[in-house]
Amino acid sequence: MAVTDVSMLRKNRKKKKALSFLKKLIVILVIGGAVAAVVFTKDLWYPKLDGILTKIPAKENSAELAEGEFPISIEGGASYNLLPLDSSIAIVDDSHFFVYNDDGKIIYSAQHTFSRPMMTAFNKKALLYDLGGKSFGLYSKYKNVYSKSTDEPILLARLGNNDIAAVVTKSEKYPSALMVYDASGKNIFNYRSVSRIIDITFNSDSSGCYITTIGTRGGFIVSNILYYRFDKVDHDGKGNPVPVWQTDDLQTLALSVRLYGENNIIMFGDTMCAYYDENGNFTDSYEYKRQLLDYSSDGSVAAMIFKNEERRSSDLVMIDCLNGTISEKNLGYEVLNVQVSGNTVYMQSRDGIESCTAEGEPLSSVKLDTDYNDFCRVGSYIYLLGYDEINRIDYN
To answer: How large is the greatest C-alpha to C-alpha distance in the chain, in angstroms?
Structure first.
């Protein structure tokens, strides 16, 4: 059995402790010296590093889907409609009207009996109507404001500022009839059109509206815009309201009319788009070179997607209607849908969503693993519309 020298063990332990303390002291002195050098030479290196840091690109948008109540399941498959409503989203499907907050929680729901439910929205209200039926109603995010019915089948409906609603129906004597209602549901204006009404667009304060019609002249389809004010209505000898102004015939099939600037308007047609000033004077137009697939506008920016068969891709055309500048580019891929929000253009392809400036400069993109039919940008979120479910991603 070995005999241990206790005094030697104590000496070795003291020696190890001294060496350990010396190593720690050296490390502390080295780090302290480095920190001091960094601090005292800051004026030399920080400006250069600051320049580098400002050039680091912003964080990529994430394709990570929202959790919690998402995805939102839709009954009845693809026959639903989603629109922004007062910082929330409104959805109408085959049997219900829903309002969800941005976490996917239901704020309000109501059952409807519409055969072909449609929805239009503006700011804090949504107007639901039965396409081909005779019922419609105005809703907030918390309640049904009013419900009404018409004598003839409804063709389309629109909602404007101050909760002004327009409902267009068929007529026994005329191709189209327009009825305008105030926020309480009172009928304040009526118009019977000898041409088919394609769209109704309210002016900025909803004191009047632009009625877009189509007809034929010399064997060609032509479109016109008639402007009426609700507070200053003159009538002809037959009692019909007289427009404040009316545009000349435009040889295209009108699809939609939107405001830009204060009360200037742009008409999207099937072969061209045209711009008019607030007095209905034609200012400019853009004739399409290819087949129009989708279009959108917000403010003065209009974006259109065209099918490029030769390159098996899509062409993007962006127009600033106020200054007349036009930007055209081939994207190199096929675009399904486009949406303009402010001065940013968002495009959905089968792979994901990309955004660019009104001049066509790329901003950001996000890849998606699942195919979606459409999308809707609301605030900093993008809602992805699938066949029977809705998801949400962040997109700043």
So the answer is: 132
Residue 19 has pLDDT above 80, yes or no: no
DSSP conformation class of 44: H
* Model pLDDT, residue 231: 86
Two structure tokens written together for 72:
């939102």
SS3 218: coil
Q: How far apart are CA 159 and CA 373, in angstroms?
A: 25
Burial of 333 per CB tally in 10 Å (0-12, 13-18, 19+): middle
Band (pLDDT 50/70/90 cuts) for residue 161 is very high
Q: How many helices, marked H, and strands, marked E, lie in the chain?
A: 2, 34
| Residue 129 three-state SS | strand
Residue whose pair of structure tokens reads 């062409």 in the numeric block: 315
CA-CA distance, 269 to 257, in Å (whole number)? 9
Q: Is residue 128 a contact partner of residue 137, using CB atoms and an 8 Å limit?
A: yes
CA distance 64 to 67: 9
**Cα atoms in the 13 Å half-sphere on the side-chain side of 322:** 12
Q: Give percent above pLDDT 70 in the chain.
A: 83
Distance CA 8, CA 204 (A): 96
User: Distance between CA atoms of 258 and 260, rounded to whole angstroms?
Assistant: 7
CB of 62 closer than 8 Å to CB of 369: no
User: Model's pTM, two decimal places?
Assistant: 0.82
DSSP state of 236: -
Determine contact, residues 104/72, Cβ cutoff 8 Å: yes
Q: Residue 2: its pLDDT value, please?
A: 40
| pLDDT value, residue 12 | 47
pLDDT band at 26 (very low <50, low <70, confident <90, very high): low
> Cβ-count burial of 115 within 10 angstroms (0-12 exposed, 13-18 middle, 19+ buried)?
exposed
Q: Give me 317's structure tokens.
A: 């055309």
According to the model, what pLDDT value does residue 224 have?
Answer: 97
Least-confidence region, from 19-23, 166-170, 249-253, 338-342: 19-23
Number of residues that this document lists for the chain: 396
174 exposure class (CB count in 10 Å sphere: 0-12, 13-18, 19+): middle
